[in-house]
Design goal:
Layout lengths: L5 E6 L3 H14 L4 E4 L13 E4 L9 H12 L5 E6 L2 H10 L14 H4 L5 H10 L7 E4 L17 E5 L5 H4 L10 E3 L2 H11 L8 E5 L8 E8 L5 E12 L9 E7 L2 H14 L3 E10 L4 E8 L8 H4 L4 H9 L8 E2 L5 E3 L3 H7 L3 H12 L3 E3 L9 H21 L5
Parallel strand pairs: 1-2, 1-4, 2-3, 10-14, 15-16
Antiparallel strand pairs: 5-8, 6-7, 6-8, 9-10, 9-12, 10-11, 11-15, 12-13
């Protein structure tokens, strides 16, 4: 396969970006371009890509011109350019400005109009309502309603509180004491303390207040999918998170996932995606409610998930599904994840200590014995000395974070 067939361009520099660069290297033995404002630890000292740093690249006034310049520079008659956003704000920028890149990008993205129906959690729940999907009991409050919002609560503590989009630029760049990606509160006083701190910041978005669905991290589920430009789902993979992260800035991110299979759930989500005309990669988070036997939808992200390499642990390859479709014109039936494998972003010692379900612990140990474990950042083809030391320090940081911040959600 010639390297001139296509050029992949990755937007971002986190674990997600590195995982996709790794998949491209594994599958096609080529280096993509990686565009970002600055390299983060997961992509530092790597030889898997050509890095292009662009100041304020994640801003509306910079992004379209900067990307257009790179697309025009690399455009060629027999080469298709494929762009892979690795964060919500890059996905949003592509949706808003796609018309400016007409004819230069081979793959398609969710339209701005469709994105506007689910880019915040409150909008997503309205979409779930209209398509018969379940979601937790929820209060949506405007900034001026934060202190009084609990007065209308018709569910009990504990509660979960989140910004309307915890990955949105505005929240990521706000600053206040006690800031987290997700908050868990057992009483009103705890909630009010956080709100008074938030109100001193420049964060002006809505807050989502939800009933806590019983169960620990292993009650969560995640589905990663790829849909072609006609809105037909071509690949789906289900994962069961066995551990989430607990440091304030990453709380709620998945730390380890075992790939699963559930054809009833696959069909439910596939029907939903195709009915709304979804295009491109999607990442849907949900939680199994043991009280009702139903899956409660949390959010949909318009890009590969940060932990999407768990799909590779299941024997599937989302990047290949994309390239086969948009570069080589293949139109095949949907492929579903059915094999079991473990993806982890944390060291084995963390899983051994903090995954307390005995059946899951046993399964994890078996998967290690069977060598069915994938770690995003530990890639033997990219372990120069500097990177090896950096990733070793990064892994030790996970051990320290769990020691400092872990709490039981049971």
């Amino acid at each position: 396969m010639g390297q001139l067939d296509f050029l992949p361009i990755i937007l971002g520099s986190d674990e997600n970006a590195y995982g996709n660069a790794r998949l491209i290297h594994e599958t096609y033995q080529m280096k993509p371009l990686l565009l970002c404002t600055r390299p983060l630890i997961p992509t530092m000292n790597s030889n898997l890509f050509h890095l292009i740093q662009i100041d304020r690249f994640d801003h509306d006034e910079v992004f379209p011109g900067a990307l257009l310049s790179i697309l025009e520079k690399h455009a060629a008659p027999n080469k298709k350019i494929v762009v892979i956003p690795c964060s919500d704000y890059y996905a949003g920028l592509l949706s808003r400005h796609y018309s400016k890149f007409k004819g230069l990008i081979a793959n398609h993205f969710v339209s701005e109009e469709l994105l506007d129906t689910f880019d915040t959690k409150d909008k997503f729940y309205k979409l779930c309502e209209s398509h018969g999907l379940n979601y937790p009991k929820t209060i949506v409050c405007e900034p001026h309603e934060r202190e009084s919002a609990l007065d209308e609560m018709d569910f009990d503590f504990p509660i979960v509180v989140k910004p309307e989009n915890s990955n949105a630029y505005e929240y990521l760049h706000s600053d206040f004491e006690g800031k987290k990606k997700v908050f868990f509160f057992n009483c009103k006083d705890e909630y009010l303390k956080m709100v008074k701190s938030m109100n001193k910041s420049d964060y002006n978005g809505k807050l989502i207040i939800q009933e806590f669905i019983p169960g620990g991290d292993n009650s969560m589920r995640v589905i990663n999918s790829y849909s072609d430009e006609n809105g037909k789902v071509k690949m789906m993979c289900l994962g069961q998170p066995v551990l989430e992260e607990y440091a304030p800035k990453t709380l709620g991110n998945y730390a380890a996932i075992i790939s699963r299979s559930d054809m009833e759930l696959y069909q439910q989500v596939k029907t939903f995606l195709e009915n709304i005309g979804y295009v491109g990669f999607s990442n849907i988070d949900m939680k199994y409610d043991s009280r009702t036997g139903k899956y409660m939808m949390f959010e949909i992200n318009p890009r590969p998930g940060r932990s999407s390499l768990f799909v590779r642990a299941a024997g599937l390859n989302m990047i290949k599904a994309l390239i086969d479709n948009v570069v080589y014109g293949k139109d095949e039936d949907c492929v579903y994840g059915e094999k079991t494998g473990l993806w982890t972003n944390v060291p084995k010692v963390v899983l051994q200590k903090y995954v307390t379900d005995p059946n899951l612990s046993k399964e994890i140990n078996e998967l290690y014995k069977q060598k069915k474990v994938l770690r995003s950042l530990w890639y033997k083809e990219d372990l120069n000395l500097k990177r090896t030391l950096r990733i070793a320090r990064y892994n030790y940081g996970h051990i320290k974070n769990f020691r400092s911040y872990f709490f039981s959600k049971e």
